[in-house]
Specification:
This protein folds into two domains: 2-68, Winged helix-like DNA-binding domain superfamily/Winged helix DNA-binding domain (Arc Repressor Mutant, subunit A, Orthogonal Bundle), CATH 1.10.10.10; 72-112. The protein has six helices and no strands. It has helices at residues 2-14, 20-30, 36-43, 47-68, 70-90, 96-112. The protein starts with a helix and ends with a helix.
Length: 113
């Protein structure tokens, strides 16, 4: 399960850097859960060809993350926002409207990522 989530994040962050053909094949495997056999039949290429393409895409996407660290930064910011939300919830002396405004601001930060 963790690998599926990791692949999804890698594709979300770096998928546009793949060729259109790579994007199509990779997204079918990752998001539509097609088997190598199903995809090879649909694309008219060998099962081994699909397997090799997926491995190349994994390596490319992991290489982008290794260099750019966008997912790592995204997860760090999400964690910090979660911690800030906990502080807001725990603080008794803040007006509820101010708390809501702070939470909205934090939600917007995460959305913009």
């Amino acid at each position: 399960m963790e690998r599926i989530i990791e692949r999804g994040l890698l594709y979300d962050f770096y998928g546009e850097l793949l060729t259109k053909h790579q994007q199509e094949i990779y997204s079918e495997i990752v998001f539509n859960d097609l088997s190598l056999s199903e995809l090879s039949e649909a694309e008219g290429i060998s099962r081994q060809g699909v397997f090799d393409l997926i491995k190349r895409c994994d390596k490319l996407l992991e290489g982008y993350e290794e260099k750019l660290k966008l997912i790592e930064k995204f997860n760090l910011i999400k964690s910090e926002v979660k911690d800030l939300n906990a502080v807001i919830d725990a603080e008794q002396g803040i007006d509820p409207k101010v708390k809501d405004k702070l939470r909205d601001g934090l939600r917007n930060i995460v959305k913009e990522l």
